[in-house]
C-alpha cells in the first residue's frame, strides 16, 4: 500500500505504508501544497505554490506499479490560477481535476488536455481564500471551506452549488462523515490577528452541521488554538482534529451521536 | 480580500483581440476636470446645486469700501495701514491687496480688494472690520466679493412669490402604529446603513430600509424618533417617512463634524471646526442653528475655539459637545452655553440672549439643565485657596432667580446628575481629606419638587471608595452606584423614598464583588443591567431592583455598548469595530434571555429608534399595569398562533430540503451505477466499490439482560 506526501521542502515522496520505506522522490521548484491519488492509484495530482518567478501549478504524475520503474516526468502541467492552489483532487473516473485556492474560485480541468472546463459562479461562490476541500466517499459531491467563514457543498460533475454552511470563524479544515449526513468545519482566527487574550481557553470548536438542513448540530471543544486539519475515520465512528496549538485530538463518538435528530 | 483576479496574459489576449494598444504614455493622459473627475458619486446629485454656489473662485475676496481717497504720495501709507489691519485676521495672499486708482485724477477710488487663502478668513475679516472706524469720516463698509454679484442680480421689479399647491406630508410617526408593536433600530456596518425591525417573536430582524453610503460619517436619530440624520461633507440631512426613508430636508454646513437636535425636534445645531491660517491661533468654530422643518438658519455663531470650549476642573482642553445645551423640556424654549465667567442663555422666540445679556457667574465651570423644567444647576469651584468655598446653585429661567444654593468645602471636583423627571439632582462631590493627600466622595441630594428644595448629604458606607458609575432610575426614586477600589467593585442601590421615612434617602442593598463598570437602567425603571465593559470583556447581569434579585447573568464577549429599547422590553449589546473580531450585536429580553444574534464585520453603530413620550396620564398607565392579565391574554393567544405557524413553516422547509436532497442522491446513485464498469477497469478489475461504501442501518439487537436458574422440584 502506498502513501504520497507533499512538503514545503519542494518534494513529493512515495512511501511503503507497511515498511515505512521511501520509494521515490519527485522534485519541484517550489513547495508542494496538496496531493491526491486517482481512482486505481495509477496517477497522482500535485499542486505547487507560487515561488519567486514560478507561478502556482497543478502537476499530474504517472505512478508506476513497480517503484523501480518510477519516472520524474509529468503527464500534464496546468497553470493559471493566481495565488496558492490549496487543494486539487481527482473527479469521478479520473476524467477531471478539481482545484481550489487563494483566488477563491473552484475550477474543473480536463485531466488529459489540461483545458479549463468549468469555473464556479462568482456571485454564489466563496469570497475569500478556499483553505480546504474534501470529497464525499463516492466522489459525487465535495465540500470546500473558506476564510470567508463559510463552507459550501458542490456537485462534482456540474459544479452546481448545493449547500452553504455559515459559521462565525474563518474555516481552515472541512470533513464529511462517511456514515451519517454530517459535515464538520474547523477553523479560527489567525494568531496574528487576535488582539485580546481570549480568557476562554480550549474554546476552539470543531462544528458539526446537518448536511441537508445546513443547521448547526453542535461543536466539540478542546483545542486552544485554531483547528487546521480534520479527518473522519472511514468507519465513521470517530474523527481526529489537528490544531495550531500543536495537538492532535482523537474523538470517539458516544452511542447518542448516532441518534441525533434535529 | 477581493477575489477579483485578472490574469495579465488574459488581459493582453483580450486587448490584442480588440485591437487595443496596451502601451500607454501616462504623461499624455488628461483627467476630466473637476474634483470628482466628472464621476457623480452617490450623494453628489444631492448637493449638486449647492456646489455651483461655492465654486465662483472669488470666495476668498472681500471688498473694503469708504476708504479715504488719497493722492499718490499717500498710497504707500494707506496701503500699509490697511495691510496691517487685515494681516492680523488672516494671511493675505501674495499680491492680494489691490487698491484701484482713478486714471484721471490719479487718486485712489476709495475702496480696495483683499484676497485671503481661505473663504473662512475672508468671512472673519468681513465680520471683524465691517463698521471699523478708521477715523470719524471713514467707517469701513466690508462685503464679500460674491455678495455683490448676488445683490446685482436682484430684479428691479418685485414679483410676488409663487404659491405652490398644497401637498400633504407623509405620516412621519407611522412606525409607532406597527401591528406587532415592534421597535426599529439603525445599524451601520462597513459602508451600509440599515434600519430594521426587531421582531423578537420570530427571533430575527425584518428590514425596513437599507442604503450604501447613506451617510459620510455617522447617523443619529432625532430625540423623539421622527427623523434620522445623516452627515456629509456639505452639511447634514434628515430622512423620514411613513413606510420608508425619504430625504425631508438638508442643511448646508461645509465640513460639519457634529450635530445635535433640540429635545422637541424643532431645531438642529451643527458644528464645524476649521484650522486657522496662523497655526498658533485656536481653531475657528462655526455653529449653525437650523429650523428642522423649513431648513432656515435661525442663528449662527462664529468664533475662535476658545470661546466655545467648556472648562472643567482639569482646565480648558478643547470642546465638549454639545456646546449649546437645551432647556425647558420639549418646547425647546431655551439653549445655553458656558462662557468665561458667564452662562449665555438664549430663548428661541427671538434667538437672542434673555434680557439681552448673559448670566454673569464668576468662575463658573459647569452647568446642566433640568430635563423637564427651565432650571439650571451650576457649579463654581473653590477660589482663592479656601477663601471662597465652592458652591452649587439652582437658577430659574427666564427670571434668573436663584432657587437654592449650597456651599461646599474642600471640593476637588464635582459632577451633577439629574433624575429623568427633574425630581432630583445628585451632586457628586469629591472632597480633599484634611491632609489634602487624597479625596473621598459624598453626594448632595436635592429634592427639587419639594418646598424649599431640601438637600440631603449622603456618604457611602466606606467613604474612601472611588465612585465608578452613578445612575438615577428613570421615572423612579432610586439610584445605583458602582464603587470600590477592588478589581471587582460593589454595586449599591438607594431609594429617595425609604419605607420608614419618606423624606430621607436610604440604602436598599449592596452587591459585593461584581464584574461591572457601567450601569444601564431600563427606560421605565425597575430593571437594570450591570455591565462589565472594556476590561471585563462583556459581562452582563440582569437585575430586578424591585425584588432586589438577579434575573440572569450572561456574557457578550468583548461587548462595547449596551442599549435598552425605548419600551424597556429588550436590551441590545454590541461589539463595535474598536475590536477587530466578534463585530455585531445581540438582542436579549429584559430578563436576560438571549433572543438572537447577528454578526457583521466593521460594525460601527447600533441605535434604537427613540419613541415620543406616551400620551397616557400616569393614572391611566397605572390602571393598565393593574389590569395587565386581562390585556396579556390576547397577546398570549397571538404568540401561540405565531409559534405554531413558525413550526409549520419550519417543518415545511425541512421537508422540501430533504426532498431536494433525495433528488441529488438518486442522481448520484444513477451516475455511480453507470460508471461502475469503468471504475473497475481503472482498478484493474478489482470490484472494490463495496469496500468503500458505508451505510447506517438501524438494527435490532437482542441483549441478554439476566440469566437465572431455578431448580424445580420434580415430584414423582
UniProtKB/TrEMBL annotation, chain A:
Pfam family, one: EIF3I
Keyword Cell division: no
GO biological process, one term: cytoplasmic translational initiation
Record-given protein name: Serine-threonine kinase receptor-associated protein
WD repeats by residue range: 1-25, 78-119, 123-164, 220-250
Native organism: Gossypium mustelinum (Cotton)
Lineage: Eukaryota, Viridiplantae, Streptophyta, Embryophyta, Tracheophyta
Domain of life: Eukaryota
Keyword field contains Metal-binding: no
One GO MF term: RNA binding
UniProtKB/TrEMBL annotation, chain B:
Keywords associated with the record: Cytoplasm, Initiation factor, Protein biosynthesis, RNA-binding
Annotated Gene Ontology cellular component terms: eukaryotic 43S preinitiation complex; eukaryotic 48S preinitiation complex; eukaryotic translation initiation factor 3 complex
Compositionally biased region (Basic and acidic residues): 673-686
Record's subcellular location: Cytoplasm
Region annotation (Disordered) ranges: 673-700
Residue ranges, compositional bias (Acidic residues): 687-700
One Gene Ontology MF term: translation initiation factor binding
InterPro entries linked to this entry: EIF3B (IPR011400), eIF3B_RRM (IPR034363), Nucleotide-bd_a/b_plait_sf (IPR012677), RBD_domain_sf (IPR035979), RRM_dom (IPR000504), TIF_beta_prop-like (IPR013979), WD40/YVTN_repeat-like_dom_sf (IPR015943)
Family annotation (PROSITE patterns): RRM
GO biological process entries: formation of cytoplasmic translation initiation complex
Alphabetical list of SMART domains matching this protein: RRM
Annotated RRM domain residues: 60-147
Family: Belongs to the eIF-3 subunit B family.
Subunit text: Component of the eukaryotic translation initiation factor 3 (eIF-3) complex.
Function description: RNA-binding component of the eukaryotic translation initiation factor 3 (eIF-3) complex, which is involved in protein synthesis of a specialized repertoire of mRNAs and, together with other initiation factors, stimulates binding of mRNA and methionyl-tRNAi to the 40S ribosome. The eIF-3 complex specifically targets and initiates translation of a subset of mRNAs involved in cell proliferation.
Full protein name: Eukaryotic translation initiation factor 3 subunit B
Organism: Gossypium mustelinum
